[in-house]
Amino acid sequence: MGRKQKAQTTLTDKEILDQMQALLNLRSASSATISQSAPSATAFPQSTLKLPTRFPCLYVDGAGQGADGGWGLIFYETLDRVIELGGYAPDTTNNRMELQAAIEGAKLINSLKLEVTVPVYTDSQYVQKGITLWIHNWLRSNWRDHSIKNQDLWEELLQVNEPNLQWQWVKGHSGVVGNERADRIAESFARGKPIDLKDFRLS
User: Fold this and answer.
1) How far apart are CA 2 and CA 201, in angstroms?
2) Are 73 and 84 in contact (CB under 8 A)?
3) Catalytic residue list contains 87
4) Which of 133, 180, 185, 194 is the most exposed place for a label (fewest CB within 10 A)?
5) 82 contacts 128 by C-beta, under 8 angstroms
6) 81: helix, coil or strand?
7) Which domains does the chain have, with CATH numbers?
8) Of 8-17, 59-68, 133-142, which range is least confident?
9) Annotated catalytic residue 18
10) Are 99 and 115 in contact (CB under 8 A)?
11) Model confidence over 106-145: pLDDT tens digits?
């Protein structure tokens, strides 16, 4: 599959982080959806930012800027404990960066040794369907399907995928804060201008 060019999100880092802080101040997962005026009339039709309501959870995303690519993720252990990671790769495609984000996210969850189910949200149907549906046919055919692209990354994802990871698709650029943040991280690395990342383990 070819590289897809993702639309630029209309949310700024400050707006995303302000919404996260508003959620932290509430100290209540039951109040985890906050409505406010959107940055522009066309940003989000319902003018609603959708904040995490289930913990722990992970959002992963990839981005392409020409031949350069970036991946990003944000892991929510609790409301006020997040880990953000990102990376860069040259001469790549958006799909490879989506896969790399998924791989790095799975590695992170494994390193934390969590024994609970962790939903992993991606706006890439290529990743979500690949790891939950297509992978079974690829394995049955011993990867003999010549239409398979990025086999190296699919095999790596398969190695780090664990039963407690629950792969779910989320619509991109729809006001889902975790997805918007992961997207911004990925794009910043793809542009060669990484933004500051948060990691509660360093505090």
Assistant:
1) 37
2) yes
3) no
4) 133
5) no
6) strand
7) 13-25+48-202 (3.30.420.10)
8) 8-17
9) no
10) no
11) 999 999 999 899 999 999 999 999 999 999 999 999 999 8
> Which residue, 99, 84, 42, is CA-closest to 195?
84
- Specify whether 61 is catalytic: yes
Question: Using an 8 Å Cβ cutoff, are 174 and 10 in contact?
Answer: no
pTM over 0.90: no
Order across the sheet with 165-169: list the strands: 81-89, 68-78, 57-65, 118-122, 165-169
Selected catalytic residue, list 15, 180, 183, 187: 183
Of 15, 62, 69, 105, which one is the catalytic site residue? 62
The CA-to-CA distance between both ends of the chain, in Å, stands at 41
Catalytic residue of the set 15, 61, 84, 104: 61
- Between helices 151-160 and 94-112, what is the axis angle to 10°? 20
123 part of the active site? yes
Contact 9, 180 (CB under 8 A): yes
- HSE toward the beta carbon, residue 10, CA cutoff 13 A: 14
CA dist., res. 4 & res. 9, Å (int)? 15
Q: Is 70 a catalytic residue?
A: no
Of 123, 178, 180, 187, which residue is the catalytic one?
123
If we measure between CA atoms, which residue out of 127, 139, 107 comes closest to residue 168? 127
Helix, strand and coil in the chain, % to nearest 5:
40, 25, 40
